[in-house]
Design a protein that fits this description.
mainly alpha
């Protein structure tokens, strides 16, 4: 029975069973990869991943995600080994070098790590600065509240003293008016 890719004309098999494809371990490049520079201030949080990839000069030409697109069209019940063999055939037919896709995946990982560190550092600094501002503002609020309480106490104490004084004057005026009335009656 012909497989899906044979029917699509993408793969041609002239053998019984799956071919033996030696698995090659993925190794890091012999040179130190270029560390991307991601400016967290320039990251658009509306589309964070696309924004990061744009800053990291990541294009989709030889994207590791091509493998996912090919995996998604394979039958779900296909074994991992069969999927890997099928994908290897598809890539070969399409002239896509798996090493380029692997390098793209590694580069994406480096860019994302750098972006995460940059975003965390920028936001941690902003958080620390804002927390310091909040503490300063709390101190100012406490000072203002103390001044308010002091002013309220001064107003209350003054009002009490003034009322006592006004009562004393009122009593003295009443008394004096009584004295004035007695003098005028004599």
């Amino acid at each position: 029975m012909a497989g899906l890719f044979e029917r699509m004309g993408l793969v041609r098999t002239e053998y019984e069973g799956m071919p033996e494809i030696p698995m090659q371990p993925v190794s890091e490049p012999m040179y130190a990869p270029e560390t991307p520079v991601i400016d967290a201030a320039q990251v658009s949080y509306d589309d964070v991943i696309a924004s990061i990839y744009q800053q990291g000069d990541i294009d989709d030409e030889n994207s590791i995600f091509k493998i996912k697109a090919y995996i998604d069209i394979l039958p779900q019940d296909m074994t991992k080994a069969k999927k890997q063999a099928s994908i290897a055939g598809i890539l070969s037919v399409n002239g896509i070098n798996v090493d380029d896709l692997i390098e793209d995946g590694l580069k994406r990982g480096r860019v994302l790590d750098t972006a995460e560190d940059s975003i965390r550092a920028e936001n941690d600094a902003l958080i620390a600065e804002t927390e310091a501002d909040i503490e300063h503002l709390k101190s100012l609020i406490e000072q203002a509240e103390a001044r308010i309480e002091d002013s309220k106490q001064k107003t209350s104490d003054s009002s009490t003293a003034i009322q006592k004084e006004k009562e004393a004057i009122s009593q003295l005026l009443e008394f004096a008016n009584g004295v004035a009335g007695k003098e005028g009656a004599q």
